[in-house]
Design a protein that fits this description.
This protein has helices at 17-24, 33-46, 62-70, 80-88, 105-114, 124-137, 172-183, 204-223, 249-260, 286-289, 322-326, 413-417; strands spanning 3-6, 9-12, 15-16, 28-32, 51-55, 74-77, 96-98, 118-121, 141-148, 170-171, 188-194, 230-232, 271-272, 275-276, 279-282, 293-304, 309-313, 332-334, 342-347, 356-363, 371-374, 395-400, 403-408. It is α/β, with parallel strands linked by helices. It has 2 domains: 3-30 and 290-417, Lyase, Ornithine Decarboxylase, Chain A, domain 1, CATH 2.40.37.10; 100-282, Alanine racemase (TIM Barrel), CATH 3.20.20.10. Helix 8 packs parallel to helix 9. It is elongated and about 70 Å long. The model has no long low-confidence stretch (mean pLDDT 95). The protein binds pyridoxal-5'-phosphate. Pyridoxal-5'-phosphate (PLP) binds next to helix 10.
Amino acid sequence: MNFHDQDGDLYCESVPLAAIAREVGTPYYVYSLDEIGRRAGAYRSAFPDALIAYAYKANANLAVLRHLVALGVGADVVSGGELWRALKVGTPPHQIVFNGNGKTPQEIAYALASDVLCINVDSAEEMELVAEVARARGVIAPISFRVNPDIDPQTHPHISTGLKQSKFGVPITEAGLLYQAARAQPFLKIVGVHCHIGSQITQAAPLLAAAQSLRDLTLRLKDDGIDLALINLGGGLGIAYRDERPMTPHEWASAVNAALGYDSANNDSTKIGGLQRARIVLEPGRSIVGAAGALVGQVIHLKRTSAKNFLVLDVGMNALMRPSLYNAYHAIRPVRAAAAALTADVVGPICESADVLGRDRALPDLKRGDLVAVMDAGAYGFSMASRYNQQPLPAEVVVQGDRWEVVTQRETWEQMAARET
Ligand SMILES: Cc1ncc(COP(=O)(O)O)c(C=O)c1O
């Protein structure tokens, strides 16, 4: 079992979080490998023919990545650094898609040299750049266009990416012309279409509308003689941070198959309603790792003022930026359960008023040194962490069954300064 109580102590699988803290100190991130495996497995079984290209941006810890590669999960990468990690953990290049709206010529060259499945091109300008880099290397670049279907994903504006005001993708209304232009380029090979309308999406309707837009575009392109081999629907399935009820991968699969006109029972069909049966690619991030991780810190003070109580932890927005950046909610609980006795804002040690992990939380009367867990922190946690205020990056620990291992050492002050002259 993922995170659970046993006689009042919080465990990850069979390991008490307090036992890890005794050896590793705080703050640390902890990830349940079995939970990650279960969630990746749900995608693999719901979409047996699809490429599940895990979004590295959510959590690019090498131990997590190795676990996913062993389960047959591919990679969605958005930088040379993420591509390097994907190759380092042994991801087959034909399971790697390269996204991003600002790839450098060097990164494009690296992707081509690595023989990735597909470069998802974000603009007409980037198409020219990819063609130029491919020409210089004497290779043909496999590309999809990231289209922007102008759909409101009904999530936080900072994680909405599919509205026409967003910086991502080409407007779907202009995509036809770009595909024609790409077809005329000798160093480009069109392989598919991509879209990603946002993250933490908890409603089915926007995701379905995006799938339908891609189907319609694919059909129009087919009429123009352009057959797509890949339909990449991006990531975006949300998780239950509080009481949200996002779709499961299986629900998403039935909806996608219906939206694309695919009969999931008939895998051989090559044409459905005029739509060439293209391979589905998905790029889930949060829904694989989010609920499988927690951030553990300890209490420095319970500060009481006439206006408010503040539970001051040894960790804050430096390690988990989502509450400050998106006003995101994370459940926060003591590692040793006790009855709630007060209401407090849970804050970190960073010199910013935005350094709040949770507002007005009902908590026990905690003491210095008590451990506190910020739940559902496996996605966009460590990967967005900073060293602001010269706070070392936290340690990372993986758990499987009753075994656990530190997979990222906590930084020392010397290591933080090591690259400076
Ligand atoms: C292009 C792309 N694909 C996939 C993802 C992963 O999204 P999520 O973590 O919501 O599944 C993102 C994240 O925003 C993204 O930008």
